[in-house]
């Protein structure tokens, strides 16, 4: 038995060293074809590399079987994109849709773009419009469009598709968007899109960067530019060995060192801890759980991008009750919820329950006489001529149908215009008492189920491997 105790540790170390050496020797630079980008760490192509552990989780590429072009599959609805170039010095990858790939169409359908583990050098909101065919023959409209909008002819479902940048703080962008709406163009989507480094190289302020040169980036004909943070070559920080993806973003070769983080150095932003992680936090590579990725904007605010509902700022994360509070950066949740419903797939998050509201456009005189009704005024949607009122819909299980129907009847009879209903998540405290929650002044509350801690899974699988090897060795040594 003493001999067994002596040699078993050395046999185990021998097996692990073989794995490590094999990976290091076989992970050389490769290409899908001679005119294609060179692939090296952190990228990898499994079908061309003998050792399946080359590259790093999330940086997997593939070769088109017929054209030999290089492809990257992003986790969002953008799907597979062609790789035009990889600049390892600048950590920049250029992607395009291919001959028949319409990037604007993919942007529009995505609603929000999940590109982890990559990120944009910055991002900007673009609006997609379906315009009347007559807009091109209008000289005034044509002049405006030539400078401030991009024709997206590949979006064939539209009469005349145009894409233009939008920022509520840029007078030019506000004016152009209002011009399109006044002309009769229909706003079909509003999407935050990554923009290349050249757009953000003119000034230290992001708002100035975007205002100065945003129109020099043609979202329709140009490529998608993304960047990344280099992960460690030999495992997670503080560990050794080659990183292996166990399906949860963690590694069998050791446990990542995961520290809490914040977007603001002043300490007035939520603490980020497992299962959440900040995308560009190079100190916490390999931490977090898929779908719980956060980002920090230029104002050091914490941002969560919901797959189909866009970006929201994070006010608070309650790890004990598994609750996250979201708010709108322009303090007008009502407008956001009218444009992009939250009654969709929020995975990995979910609502405690949903509540449906009816919106009404009323004249100021009618609204001033509606104080006796159970309605709420929405200042951020109102103007000097119109007051927007809101009431609980009769379709909601938490409303009193008779009262709600009476309110709707009274407002319509008085001349108010009823708008499309909006269904939103409500907090746990409001499930039994709807009046305790007013989303016009409060936040959006979502919850989540605790995912498996991939760090623990990694450790368990590691011990299982060691146990398996040890058992095999023992069986061999004690066999007659």
UniProtKB/TrEMBL annotation:
Subcellular location: Membrane
Segments crossing the lipid bilayer: none
Substrates-to-products reaction catalysed: S-ubiquitinyl-[E2 ubiquitin-conjugating enzyme]-L-cysteine + [acceptor protein]-L-lysine = [E2 ubiquitin-conjugating enzyme]-L-cysteine + N(6)-ubiquitinyl-[acceptor protein]-L-lysine
Pathway of action: Protein modification; protein ubiquitination
Family label: Belongs to the RING-type zinc finger family. ATL subfamily.
Gene Ontology molecular functions: polysaccharide binding; ubiquitin protein ligase activity; zinc ion binding
Membrane topology listed for this record: Single-pass membrane protein
InterPro entries xref list: ATL20-22-like, WAK_GUB
Annotated GO CC locations: membrane
Source organism: Papaver somniferum (Opium poppy)
Name of the protein described by the UniProt record: RING-type E3 ubiquitin transferase
Signal peptide residue numbers: 1-23
Organismal lineage: Eukaryota, Viridiplantae, Streptophyta, Embryophyta, Tracheophyta
Wall-associated receptor kinase galacturonan-binding domain: residues covered: 27-96, 263-328
Keywords, in A-Z order: Membrane, Metal-binding, Signal, Transferase, Transmembrane, Transmembrane helix, Ubl conjugation pathway, Zinc, Zinc-finger
Pfam families: GUB_WAK_bind
Entry's EC annotation: 2.3.2.27
């Amino acid at each position: 038995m003493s001999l067994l105790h002596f040699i078993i540790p050395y046999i185990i170390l021998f097996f692990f060293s073989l794995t490590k050496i094999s990976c290091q020797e076989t992970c050389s630079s490769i290409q899908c074809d001679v005119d294609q980008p060179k692939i090296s760490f952190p990228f990898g192509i499994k079908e061309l590399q003998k050792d399946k552990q080359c590259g790093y989780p999330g940086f997997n590429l593939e070769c088109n079987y017929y054209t030999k072009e290089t492809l990257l599959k992003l986790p969002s609805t953008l799907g597979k994109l062609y790789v035009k170039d990889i600049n390892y010095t600048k950590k920049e990858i250029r992607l395009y849709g291919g001959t028949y790939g319409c990037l604007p169409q993919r942007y529009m359908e995505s609603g929000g773009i999940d590109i982890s583990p990559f990120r944009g050098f910055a991002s900007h909101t673009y609006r997609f419009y379906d315009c009347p065919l007559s807009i091109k023959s209008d000289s005034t409209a044509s002049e405006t469009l030539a400078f401030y909008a991009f024709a997206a002819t590949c979006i064939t479902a539209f009469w005349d598709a145009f894409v233009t940048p939008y920022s509520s703080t840029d007078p030019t962008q506000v004016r152009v968007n209002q011009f399109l709406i006044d002309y009769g163009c229909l706003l079909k989507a509003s999407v935050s899109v990554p923009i290349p480094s050249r757009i953000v190289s003119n000034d230290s302020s992001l708002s100035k960067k975007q205002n100065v040169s945003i129109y020099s980036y043609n979202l329709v004909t140009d490529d998608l530019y993304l960047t990344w943070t280099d992960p460690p070559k030999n495992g997670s920080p503080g560990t050794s060995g080659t990183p292996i993806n166990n399906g949860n973003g963690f590694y069998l070769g050791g446990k990542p060192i995961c520290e809490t983080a914040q977007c603001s150095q002043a300490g007035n932003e939520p603490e980020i801890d497992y299962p959440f992680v900040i995308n560009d936090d190079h100190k916490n590579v390999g931490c977090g759980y898929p779908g719980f990725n956060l980002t920090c904007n230029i104002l050091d605010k914490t941002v969560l991008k919901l797959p189909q509902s866009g970006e929201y700022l994070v006010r608070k994360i309650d790890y004990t009750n598994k609750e996250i509070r979201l708010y709108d950066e322009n303090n007008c949740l009502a407008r956001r919820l009218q444009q992009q419903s939250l009654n969709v797939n929020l995975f990995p998050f979910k609502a405690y329950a949903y509540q449906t509201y009816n919106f009404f456009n009323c004249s100021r005189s009618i609204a001033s006489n509606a104080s006796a009704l159970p309605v709420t005024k929405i200042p951020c949607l109102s103007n000097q001529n119109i007051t927007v009122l809101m009431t609980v819909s009769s379709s909601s299980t938490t409303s009193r149908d008779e009262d709600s129907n009476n309110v709707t009847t009274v407002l319509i009879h008085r001349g108010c215009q009823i708008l499309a209903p909006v269904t939103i998540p409500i907090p746990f405290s409001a499930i039994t008492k709807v009046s305790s929650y007013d989303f016009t002044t409060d936040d959006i509350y979502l919850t989540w189920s605790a995912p498996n801690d991939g760090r623990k899974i990694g450790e368990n699988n590691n011990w299982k491997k060691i146990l398996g090897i040890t058992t095999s060795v023992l069986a061999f040594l004690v066999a007659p």
